[in-house]
Amino acid sequence: MKRKIIILGAGVSGNAVKKLAGVLGDEATIVCDDETELLPPCDLVVVSPGVPPLKSHLYQQAEKSGVELIGELEYAFRACDFPLLAITGTNGKTTTTELTCHLLRKSNVDAVAAGNIGRPLSDVVAEARITGKKPQIVALEVSNFQLEKAPSFAPFAAVLLNLASDHEDRYTGGFDEYCRVKMSIFDRVDAAHRVYGLSFADKPHRITRSGASLCDGDTVLVNTKETALNSPHNQENFAAALELVHLFLGHYPVLPGAVADFHPGAHRLQRVAEIAERLFIDDSKATNPHAVFAALKAMDRPVVLLLGGLDKGMDFSSFESLAAPDIRAVVLFGECRKKMRQHLKGNFPVFDGEMDFVQTLKLAAQASRPGDAVLLSPSCASFDMFKSYGDRGDRFREIALQLTREDFPSEK
User: Which domains does the chain have, with CATH numbers?
Assistant: First the structure.
């Protein structure tokens, strides 16, 4: 029997649900809060992850309607007949997902990367139904937004990388509720297939870290100095990916050869320019404090740190621990800069770039010294000034490359 489905929210996820609905024989209509006041009659409501539950009047109507309300992830999973390796956490999801898929492909497995990484699971399932060719496995990046309405989601194995302040403006229960949503990824996963990131010191780990080496017991699997994943946070991502791959294959890929050509994606500690002996590093993907501290741990030189953007109800009190000489200066920008300024108590100068990104970079250049890193690791979302974190990172690179020696302090 054909069901009438209402999809809340357009965009990539909403359109992927509509594509899959067509394949499954459901009648689907996309509706948005800014286009209609009333939720149309239906048999099922599927919500896109970007629709905010506390702000969407259509979402709130759906919850009160008595009609089943599920997320895009749940809708896709109910029609999915291939295994999933699910990856969540506050930070590192995309790199771990990409790396998991890469390692599987290097082991001759037909693997696909999907989910919050950019391609919805609904699209993968629809294509598999249309073509008759399904992947052997999907490495699936899963956000807390996607987990909120996924009551039967049960991947083959799952990893929770870490938990830190983020997206607290989405939940009436604040950080505790955010953590509960993240932890729900394990609700229907066998205990032996639950993987925790190395940041969970109280959890068992098949893979451990010894300096730059990742080990299984006494066996050294790989020296991360031989890879592009040698920073502490990427070692954690690497360990999680290896555990997931081992759970699926029953063995490890041939290392380090399998990872030799792997590099984390753009806007993740990406070196974009070296000007007047200063290294400009784009870490625009760092949209919460935990990610900023991970970036700082990876630095081997003093840093002029660019912080700011759109707040997500986060706790910035951890920034009170920032101090010289590791931090040369901080330059604030964007909507959230005044809130962040209250927590910068270290013995370093703080400058205000206001809502002007060109001014922000010029202030950073003036505050820097030869040998420093100028690090964009903003700790906030980008939508106050930019289309996306990628747009923000691209603009950072563009402005940096336009700087000349005259924009830097003269050395006498």
Answer: 4-76 (3.40.50.20), 80-259 (3.40.1190.10), 270-407 (3.90.190.20)
